Amino acid sequence: MYEGVVQDLIDELGRLPGVGPKGAQRIAFHLLQADPVDVRRLADVLLEVKAKVKFCSTCFNVAEDDQCRICRDPRRDATVLCVVEEYKDVVAIERTREFRGRYHVLGGAISPIDGIGPEQLHIRELLARLGQGDGAEVSEVILATDPNLEGEATATYLTRMLSPLGLRITRLASGLPVGGDLEYADEVTLGRAFVGRQAAT
What we know:
By secondary structure, the protein is α/β, with parallel strands linked by helices. The chain is built from 8 helices and 6 strands, in the order αααββαβαβαβαβα. A 4-stranded parallel beta sheet has the order 4-3-5-6. It has a two-stranded antiparallel ribbon with strand order 1-2.
């Protein structure tokens, strides 16, 4: 334990996701040794982010305006909607440069053990979006939830809710990673790879 404000800094940094006690301590001491101008710049950016960044009123991605840049972009394919759990998933998909449609960010996944049900996610807004306005032109919904228990539960629930709308509902393919070895693949991943196998070209 350190004294006063140093321990307060370590405690606050330790509350960040992915930062344990040792990592929080390393960051704290890095900040203590850093140039005051650099620390001030970091503090200013943190305050500016909290003041300026909000969530898109259409898709719930991060945005500085009422709508995010993807929802405002008329070049995006409005007939395909990709449903993701978190806004960081939007960034991951955008990096592939393979998807040119629009997004809907749920804000998490169904996880009864964590007290997260459909009511805590942006599912109601998804259904409303598909039933009116720009959502009326959507013909395919891609469910890009994580391939874990919570993601699968969310995808199953969404499939049940969206089926009556008559849309094409697809799920991202899953299986073996490029460069992976069969002997190290778990049974679920290997099983999905067999189910999702494609013709050799």
